[in-house]
Amino acid sequence: MFYNSTRNSTVKVSSAEAITQGISTDGGLFVPESIPELSLDEIKAVGDMNYADRAAFIFSKYLTDFTDAEIHYCTDNAYSTKNFETESIAEIAHLFDGTYMLELWHGPTCAFKDMALQILPYFLTTSAKKINLDKKIVILVATSGDTGKAALEGFRDVEGTSILVFYPEDGVSPMQKRQMKTQEGSNVGVCALKGNFDDCQNGVKAIFTDSDVKKQLDDKGMMFSSANSINWGRLVPQIVYYVSSYAELVKDGEITAGEKINIVVPTGNFGNILAAYYAKHMGVPVNKLICASNINNVLTDFINTGVYDRNRKFYATVSPSMDILISSNLERLLYLLTGKNDILIKEWFGKLSTEGKYEVSDDIKAKIKEEFFAGCCDDVQTKQTIHEIYEKYSYTCDTHTAVAVKVYQDYKNATGDNTKTIIASTASPYKFSAAVLEAVQNEKSDLDEYDMIDKLAELSNMPVPSALADLRNKPERFNDVIEKAEQKKYVLETLGI
Ligand SMILES: *Cc1c(COP(=O)(O)O)cnc(C)c1O
Q: Is residue 395 within 8 Å of 93, Cβ to Cβ?
């Protein structure tokens, strides 16, 4: 299997090269040149494996330059009860008849990003070895909260790597700040920046592309890499849990082999739902892919009209991980739907960066509508939904997942479709305790973050993930706060240059 760039179809690299490079030099994203197909029997057989073996089976179709031993080294290290709180890794909870919550947040940072960021370090170090990049990999991350913590947990103490995360001093939640300041591991660093997320991001990008810095790293036997969500190494692990959950439902007798299901995904950067699209085209019987957005509904409009327009107000919502106006992974979908038309992709994404807007052709609009349904909801509806399903089904979900549940209800009302449905549940409710507790109780709470967690535990009867419960007593290790202008100096000093 080779990988093409969405902006140049003649680019052809191995998966190890795609993963270490992250993004193609032409600015395009790496896409496998074909989608491997699974028979129904193969999918059913997945149900008899443990999660690490399920993942290894899917990876063997995409990472064909990896040996079986290399793949198993990655999956066995990433997907074990050492890192995840449940044996099944991706737990399925029953919400109501024919509706299943795929809980992807039993990992170390309590959000679905762990599913990919637990394995990415192993993919990266293995890939680097395979292509004889005999260098220490230095990961730089700018984060607005979730990604930074998940990357820190993924890379901590992974041999041959180190990681440095920058976050905006006043731009993350108190819990997210605690999570990062108390980070453990011998190869990790965390630093607050006096500025906003964009300042962090711009600084990191500037350091990445600074040829002087690159040379200095090179001399020391180091290289930069990115844990960003456009890396194919972050997307491919997400395909696994859609194949896995279908196989699991067949095994449990909830659906018959071959029966179609819907998949609902609370969406931001379009990575998670794109993985569901890949699973569908590998052979998982899927009826509709339902794309749920919060009030930053650029994707809802795009799927419904074919016009992508980021020229709009940006809202900070109670589902912050979906507060995004540019969904990078949409580029991969459009590349596939246009039959790999790199010229069109360059044209559309060029327009997106100059005018903030592009419109796809009518045949592409029709193809999108055939595969996807899109909807959105605001914060009031999100909280109402949390309250409703808490009352009705004694199930407590987080704000992002609630957006998905609400859009799914709207879909059912609009279409009358009774197809059985998997809803991707992307974060533990404890990670967004303030909003969830307010929704459950129908009033704002003035407790502190930890007392809110205790209160929520009392009301929901769900165990508090140890990763969050333990935070209270962990010592803070990282208290550096720097000016924007000091970022480069800080990176070099931290790396001992
Ligand atoms: C990142 C994230 C999302 C959005 O996922 P995308 O792959 O970016 O679409 C949804 N929910 C939570 C909790 C997240 O952390």
A: yes
> Whose C-alpha lies nearest to ligand 1, atom 1?
321
Query: Looking at the domain 1-124+231-463, which fold is it?
Result: Rossmann fold (3.40.50)
Q: What length is written for the chain?
A: 497
Q: pLDDT for 472-493, tens place per residue?
A: 899 999 999 999 999 999 999 9
Distance 425 CA to ligand 1 centre (A): 10
Q: Say yes or no: CB of residue 322 within 6 Å of ligand 1.
A: yes
The verdict on the CB of residue 111 being under 6 Å from ligand 1 is: yes
Q: The pTM is what? A: 0.94
Is the CB of 238 within 6 Å of ligand 1? Answer: no
Whether residue 309 is predicted with pLDDT greater than 80 in this model: the reply is yes
Is ligand 1 within 6 A of the CB of residue 465?
no
Which atom of ligand 1 is nearest to 268's Cα? 9
What average pLDDT does the segment 383-397 reach? 97
Encoded amino acid at 35, one letter? I
Identify the pLDDT of residue 444: 94
Domain ranges of the chain: 1-124+231-463
Active-site option among 82, 113, 130, 214 = 113
Residues 211, 213, 217, 218, Cα dihedral to 10°: 20
**Is 392 noted as a catalytic residue in this protein?**
no
Non-local (6+) Cβ contacts of 358 within 8 A are 307, 308, 347, 348, 349, 351, 352
Write down the mean pLDDT value for the chain: 95
pLDDT at 377 over 90: yes
Task: Report which protein residue has its CA nearest ligand 1's atom 2.
Answer: 321
